[in-house]
Design goal:
This protein is α/β, with parallel strands linked by helices and about 150 residues long. About 40% of the residues lie in helices and about 20% in strands. The protein has five helices and five strands. Strands 2-1-3-4-5 form a five-stranded parallel sheet, sandwiched between helices. Helix 4 links the parallel strand 3 and strand 4. Helix 2 runs parallel beside helix 5 and helix 3 runs parallel beside helix 4. The two termini are about 15 Å apart. Belongs to the type-II 3-dehydroquinase family. It comes from Kitasatospora phosalacinea. It is an enzyme of class 4 (lyase). Keywords: Amino-acid biosynthesis, Aromatic amino acid biosynthesis, Lyase. Pathway: Metabolic intermediate biosynthesis; chorismate biosynthesis; chorismate from D-erythrose 4-phosphate and phosphoenolpyruvate: step 3/7.
Length: about 150
């Protein structure tokens, strides 16, 4: 039986492929979902990818993950920089939680340099394009195996 993992995506990530391809690449959101599912299967993970523009929905998903002890890969999008509600929900985690970013926030606008999620995450991976998700899934698989 494979371990269930949630890959949670915040605002505007559903627009991958059309949103600033010079920053976020040309792969569509459907392409991201497929890549995560394929790699998850290789790693023995059952990956469910979700995206929302709603902070409340994201908080609910983090509560769901905490209650079920489900590992999480999260790209909070713009919520990264100011959502204390999401930070508090992520702090309730009961399994590994890896924060990911497609671009490197530290090479972008100053307001992107602060993450309220990072302090409560198992780790953060940023700047490797969609490969950030792959690295996060591999890190989760390794953490789950070493438990």
């Amino acid at each position: 039986m494979s371990t269930r993992v949630l890959v949670l995506n915040g605002p505007n990530l559903g627009r991958l492929g059309s949103r600033e391809p010079d920053v976020y690449g040309s792969t569509s959101y459907a392409g991201l979902v497929a890549r995560c599912a394929e790699l998850g299967a290789e790693l023995g993970l059952s990956v469910e990818v979700r995206e929302t523009n709603s902070e409340a929905e994201m908080v609910g998903w983090l509560h769901e993950a905490a209650d079920a002890k489900t590992p999480v890969v999260i790209n909070p999008g713009a919520f990264t920089h100011y959502s204390y509600a999401m930070r508090d929900a992520a702090a309730q985690r009961t399994a590994p939680l890896v924060e990911v970013h497609i671009s490197n926030p530290y090479t972008r606008e100053t307001f992107r340099h602060t993450s309220v999620i990072a302090a409560v995450a198992s780790g953060t991976i940023a700047g490797f394009g969609l490969g950030s998700y792959e690295l996060a899934l591999r890190a989760l698989a390794e953490q789950l195996t070493s438990r």
